[in-house]
Amino acid sequence: MRFDTIVIGGGLSGLVSAIECARAGQKTAVVSAGQSALHFWSGSFELLGNIDGRPVIDNPLGRLGELSEDHPYRKIGEEKLRELLGKVPGIISDAGLKCTGSLDRNHLRLTPLGFLKPAWLTLGDYVSFAADQPLPWKKVALVNIYSYLDFYPRFLEYGLKKRGVECTISNVNIPQLDTLRKSTTEMRATNMSRILTDSAVDALAAEVDKAAKGADAVIMPAILGIYSDAPVERLRNRVSVPVWFVPTTPASVPGVRCQLSLRDLFIRLGGEFLPGDTVKGGYFEKNRLRRIHTVNLGEMPLEADNFIISTGSFFGHGLIADMERIYEPVFGLDLNVTGGRTEWYRKDFYASQPYMSYGVVTDSCFRPSRKGETVENLYATGALLAGFNALKEGSGAGITLATALHAASSLT
Amino acid sequence: MTLQQQNISDNNFESCIKCTICTVYCPVTAVNPDYPGPKQAGPDGERYRLKKPLYYDEALKYCLNCKRCEVACPNDVRIGDIIQSARIKYGRHRPSLRDSILADTDTVGTMASAFAPIVNFTLRLKPVKLLMDTFLGVDDHRTFPKYSSVKFETWYNKHAAAEQEKFPKKVAYFHGCYVNYNYPKLGMDFIKVFNAIGIGVSLLDKEKCCGVAKIANRCIKDATRDAEINLKAIREAVGNGMDVLLTSSTCCFTIRDEYPHVLKLENEDVRDHVSLATRALYRLVDEGKVKLVFRKDFRKRIAYHVPCHMEKLGWSIYSTTLLKMIPGLDFVRLDPHCCGIAGTYGFKKEYYNYSQAIGEPLFRQILDSNLDSVATDCETCKWQIEMSTGLPVENPISIIADALDVEATRKANNVED
Ligand SMILES: Cc1cc2nc3c(=O)[nH]c(=O)nc-3n(C[C@H](O)[C@H](O)[C@H](O)COP(=O)(O)OP(=O)(O)OC[C@H]3O[C@@H](n4cnc5c(N)ncnc54)[C@H](O)[C@@H]3O)c2cc1C
Ligand code: SF4
Ligand code: SF4
User: Fold this and answer.
1) Tell me, which fold does domain B3-90 have in CATH?
2) pTM above threshold 0.90
3) Which pLDDT does position B107 carry in this prediction?
4) I need a labelling partner for B240 at 20 to 30 A (CA). Which of A40, A380, B232, B377 fits?
5) DSSP string across A334-359
6) Could you give the CA distance from residue A30 to residue A19 in angstroms, rounded to a whole number?
7) Which ligand minimizes its atom distance to the CA of B258?
8) Per-residue pLDDT tens digits for A366-389
9) What class does CATH assign to A127-246?
10) Are A183 and B24 in contact (CB < 8 Å)?
């Protein structure tokens, strides 16, 4: 089977580059083994939130000079980054999601542990503040669901109090959620969100409204709107003060929503999405990848003019570490790993861990190499890449999206 | 072997990172609060069960074995296999009379075919349905698939076998119980399409039910016996240079994957030769070995529904690509969604409501899409969608057979008379 472009990996990176290729009229396929890191998503995309342990607020893209030379952002450059990342809000909105934020200035998002962290784009319903300004509320009602254990109002209270916001904490219940309690393990955000539609939302709204008495706003765990905005809007319309959400322990409701919305957009644009299939390897001819083999399609390969590999980092299985070595399992692409196992990590858990910046090395167009030879029609994007520590920098989604859009722009 | 590899069990439940992603995609969790969900029923529960079989939870019976959890799992945990194996190993109740009857498609099918007009008539009678509901626990809302008065095998031997001899190239057709007892037309369509491209169709020397219903109803001894007979016949056909093709995604999935994973029967030597008809046909077209010529006057708006086992096989792309080749076919894509029947599951009184609730979003989308018909590769999806939407449902092979210009196709492939 032949395509113009085949994308390996259906996480944030793979889907976004595939969407852009399909939009440009290319016959595009995505092959994706299992679900992605998006299922752990906080509801905020980060661009560059920290340099040397200090938060970045103003003009993050003006600070690229402080990053290491092989950092993906520096390969792209400020001007091109602005152009590429400028497309993201449009793509998100085409997928049916709303977000706020700007490339010129980070805002702050409220983390589940009550910290305020710099972010670039945040979903419209999630708590975010303009940086360097007092918080917009005097009193907030933190409302949890009775017996739901993946949301910690005390942490939020602690964080908000430090900034002068008074908090009340309450647990509400509606009979519709009782069924989930039959099995203690099933009281999860995503499971609740499948029940919380229509009249169940009305019942919840009535309870939340009671708990909101005297508060300027309600903050709740993200347990609504897994398939659409409708339940969130319905709740908001029925509660007398504004309702905001904070992400929960995975699986994340906004994450599933984002994953499915991007997948559906890709399919609407005519793309072929092959879920649950693993690419095992490929056939190369003179530094060009001709075709790939997958577990499900067996002896029938997939051919394409160009390929994009977005298989993620260790979490996505784009990189594998065993006792002896770290490797890229699909094509054996070159990595920036140096030394043996003891050099991959530091014993201080909170230190900057070397393995976090391991990944596939590429040329300036994000084409990886095998045994030192660049593969001319293969592009590597997203968490799979080398040269950054997404956790320390607060740069995961920015790099993921910028490299995906860069690869797509080279191909369309 | 590394230390880690030595510590991985057969069904790799240790690879689970407890992310609960599987639970997000389980159709049963969404509608049935008594079901513990794939993570708990699968890898989590397995740890307890290994300690003490007492921890086995009878609620595992609610699992559809649809494998959507496995398609979603980022760590390739064989969740569905873990659950099915646990039901077999630890299930305390013996299969009921009703379950054994539903599972034994061969015996029931043979009997029903012999008395088809009477059986079809009585199965539609309200009193009979009520009796079955009360005494057997077969839900009285359920419409039964009709039984055919002539079995496919009988028809084949009488009307088709001799003609197949003249084709130099041949495939073996595993027709399955549904084609044999309920709907021989699909088998005839399969022969029509393959003969038109110059390929003869033979049947396996001996074919038994693939065993999917017996596995689901925990009649494992019988399932294993049938599977061994099938594997022997498949080996023989493959030995004679034939691939074995199926028109049912579920039978195909069972033979390829459930035989080794659940019944623990080795099939590696023939697995690659067992394939779905649409996949084999697509391959011939794609490699330029065969041309399909379609009628100019075919006009239909058809949506394709991906059966759960097809999603797991990862092969729906072959069926949909073939359908899209038909010039007059206005193709509609349905969202990936379980129809809820899961073989014999939806026939059982205690599951009927769950079954319909699971399929509801799919039925709604079908009814809203202004379709002439629905295409799907699974016979039980067909019953469920026909019953729940009133629209006709056909296998892609039947649609191709209908749209094919047989004479022109024979000519294009130089098929001699
Ligand atoms: C747990 C976690 C939470 C995060 N949360 C945030 C956040 O809230 N905000 C933020 O800005 N950043 C976050 N990040 C950073 C994150 O790295 C990026 O935001 C981004 O999601 C990475 O996307 P990706 O597509 O590159 O990789 P992934 O999301 O890992 O996707 C890789 C995909 O490729 C598939 N795959 C792997 N191998 C194969 C193969 N051989 N064949 C076929 N498919 C294959 C995988 O199954 C997976 O679906 C988080 C990262 C992690 C790990
Ligand atoms: S999706 Fe896989 S890894 Fe995650 S909880 Fe389920 S079985 Fe475990
Ligand atoms: S096989 Fe289907 S029904 Fe069973 S646990 Fe997995 S997703 Fe749920």
Assistant:
1) Fumarate Reductase Iron-sulfur Protein; Chain B, domain 2 (1.10.1060)
2) yes
3) 67
4) B377
5) -B---S-GGGT--SSTTS--GGGG--
6) 10
7) 3
8) 999 999 999 999 999 999 999 999
9) alpha beta
10) no
Tens digits of residue pLDDT in A53-93: 999 999 999 999 999 999 999 999 999 999 999 999 999 99
| Torsion region of B264: left, alpha or beta (phi above 0 gives left; psi -120 to 50 gives alpha) | left
Pick the CATH number of A2-102+257-411 from 3.50.50.60, 1.10.472.10, 3.40.190.170, 3.30.70.260: 3.50.50.60
Topology (CATH) of B300-403: Rossmann fold (3.40.50)
Q: Which atom of ligand 2 is nearest to the CA of A35?
A: 1
Question: How is residue B196 written in tokens?
Answer: 């038109």
Helix A230-238, helix A198-211: angle, nearest 10: 40
Which residues of chain B have a CB within 8 Å of the CB of A277? Answer: 314
Helices marked H in A2-94:
12-23, 72-76, 78-85, 88-94
B276 alpha carbon – ligand 1 mean position (Å)? 33
Strand partners, A320: A327
Do B3-90 and B300-403 show the same overall fold?
A: no
Amino acid at B362: L
Question: And the tokens for B255?
Answer: 């033979």
Closest C-alpha residue for ligand 1 atom 41? A279
The pair of three-digit structure tokens given for residue B370, joined into one six-digit string: 């202004």
How far is ligand 2, taken at its centre, from the CA of residue B197, in Å? 45
| Helix boundaries (H) for B7-61 | 21-24, 27-31, 38-39, 45-51
Q: What are phi and psi of A391, to 5 degrees?
A: -70, -45
Q: Cα separations (Å) of B326 from A49, A50, B296, B403, B405?
A: 53, 55, 9, 7, 11
Residues in CB range of B135: below 8 A, 6 or more apart: none
- Are A373 and A284 within 8 A, CB to CB? no
Q: Which regions in chain B score pLDDT beneath 50?
A: none
